[in-house]
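Incident log, structure service

09:12 report received: a user says their structure output differs between two submissions of the same chain.
09:20 pulled the input from the user's history:
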Amino acid sequence: MLVVSIIVLTIAIQTIVQYSLDKQRNTALIVNLAGFQRTLSQRLLNEAYSCRFHNCDYAELKLTLNKLLQRNEILQNGSVNLGIEPLRNEGISKNFGRLHPYIVWFSSNMSSYDDVAHLSFNDIRFRVDRFGEIMDDIVLQFQKQSEEDIKAMRIIELELAIFSVFIVLFEIFFIVNPIINRIMEQKKKLAEIAWHQSHVFSSHMKNIKDLQYVMRVERNPERRDEIVKFIYEELDQLDHVSQNMQNSLKKSEDVDLPHQRMLKKMETLLEKYHLVLGEEVTDDDRAHSLKS
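09:34 re-ran on a clean worker, output below:
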């Protein structure tokens, strides 16, 4: 029972630790994605500037815009492939609501080359700056949420560790220690039986052998009857010693082990609430009994 409980507790602790690590990895991934959104917005501004005043690489601008829109969707609705769950924090959702008009503006005004060529660079920079400020708040909120999750997992791990120590101590004091005492008691009983075997029993057997030898050489009938009487007395003593040995073993066998007492209590409780599976009396049986 002690070994099984330790194995179960170890599995539970390792499960929680692995869950905590997965949670931290997912949170770190979310924080990185949110932080990279600011980089994408700045890159989008640089690409728009190049299209207005230098050689335009619209394909790069379009790729940057698609990444920004896609990751914004992942941060809110989650991703099965990345193992990210949908957003459930109301405070962060409100900030994404503030961010939504800028996302719509980027998507509707920068989706074609002609739109980018005619946009005011100051309008793009203003919206990119506002986008970056809101994303700073969102990243900070994700970090605080991550810290709270880590703190909660640490508390759970600490509670489970304390519970594990309590369970082990309980089993040591109420199961292992009584079993050790039982073993020591058995050892004492065996030592007592061994003493009777080696001293008392051997002594009586030696007396019987001596009397047997005397009886063989004795010719006087009265003396032989007296020797027979002595032999019977020695046999009675041997029977008494044997009875003491059996009583010692019986006392040690009648003592229930702690787990046996626990099982008996459980059986009594089950019987009290009629949860023990026994012979069920069916309607058929009742019908037969009535007929008989």
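09:41 both user submissions now match this output. Likely a transient worker issue. Closing.
09:42 reviewer note: Confidence is low (pLDDT under 50) at residues 275-292. Residues 184-275 form one domain.
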